[in-house]
Amino acid sequence: MSANLEQSFVQQLQANQNIIHKICRLYTSGEDEHKDLFQEITIQLWKAFPKFRGESKFSTWAYRVALNTAITLYRKSTRTVHTTEFDTARHFIKEEDYNYEEEEQIKLMYKAVHQLNDIEKALVFMYLEDKDYEEISETLGISEVNARVKMNRIKGKLKKILNP
């Protein structure tokens, strides 16, 4: 891989790493699992980066790869992430501080979201990130109408979970 490609990847990843942290937070329950999943997503992004054609924004592409990686790992495993070797000496990515001490309301919301299925979690995540339904549908591979209908159903589900 060329140094230019590597530099471009590192810059894009650093600019968008909060996306990955948020996905890790949705699909894991502990700091170690979070770090393992973050590493696995980074590896999958790196492996796929040479094929990234720039037809969509990097963030949209990263969402898709990260969500697919998280969903695939958690469907196959018993909540254990098996990681791939990664030569970290060549890929120093400055990790931003990630605050694990969230306010009580955010904790309750995450607890409620954890009760949703994988696709519902992804939809909620993107909705909370202020993604429009066009981008949500493109990333998840569903129609815009389907994304809107699912989101309305999910809102009702979350209301019942949070206010039984």
Automatic annotation (TrEMBL):
Keyword Transcription regulation belongs to the record: yes
Pfam family, any one: Sigma70_r4_2
Boundaries of every RNA polymerase sigma factor 70 region 4 type domain copy: 109-158
Keywords of this entry: Sigma factor, Transcription, Transcription regulation
Occurrences of domain RNA polymerase sigma-70 region (ranges): 14-80
InterPro entries (alphabetical): RNA_pol_sigma-70-like, RNA_pol_sigma-70_dom, RNA_pol_sigma70_r2, RNA_pol_sigma70_r4_t2, RNA_pol_sigma_r2, RNA_pol_sigma_r3/r4-like, WH-like_DNA-bd_sf
Family recorded in the similarity comment: Belongs to the sigma-70 factor family. ECF subfamily.
Protein's name in the database: RNA polymerase sigma-70 factor (ECF subfamily)
